[in-house]
Amino acid sequence: MTAAADQDRRKREAARRALELVRPGMKLGLGTGTTARHFVDLVGEQVKGGLQVVCVGTSKATEEQAKALGIPLSTLDDLSDLDLTVDGADEVDPQLRLIKGGGGALLREKIVAAASKRMAVIVDSTKLVRVLGAFPLPIEVVPFGLAATRRHIERALAGLGLAGSIRLRGGSGPFITDGGHYILDCSLGAIDQPERLGESLSMIPGVVEHGLFVGLARTAIIAGAEGVQVLGDPD
Ligand code: 5RP
Fold it and tell me: Which domains are assigned to the chain?
């Protein structure tokens, strides 16, 4: 088995363990990315088998996948809050602080997670880190005034003793999020104070959201070579 296939198998194992948190009648948030995709597949199988749930997707891609699988979808406007959201992450630290947004869905992901009684994150063990920041931190910004917003971000980073490159996500043109915004990926190396950094970034005009998820995940399901490990609340 190739390393990529092995990693994908672990993502599915984590997703399968998360299915144990799902109860009939639940209102579920469905995450975005290759790991969350496995979870959505598994929920789809259960729905075909008769499980009754209603779900909210964290991206257009997830909504399309869920629709194709026959999973009943709703919105946060129609459901007051969700019971459980299961989503992937780019990094998880031992305190269940996360970097998310590698797939560009951080804004909806954070809104859905914050509207949920519980967020469980599913990852393979390569995502578990001692200190966040090796993965570039995604920051979703409004296209208007991009250069000014970027300068404010640079100042905020410098104020916390952080340095590193900031790159506008995209190829021949900028990547556009589901909300119509751009993403700046900040390579910071190590983020010692994610709470403080998150607060500083949130105050910058033009910043829509950042990929630091602090105080949102209650459970992390981590699949590695030795099996599945659960951090936080297991059930
Ligand atoms: C999307 C995300 C994803 O959950 C994160 O990037 C992990 O993705 P994958 O499971 O494909 O590694 O935050 O915005």
Answer: 3-129+215-225 (3.40.50.1360), 137-209 (3.30.70.260)
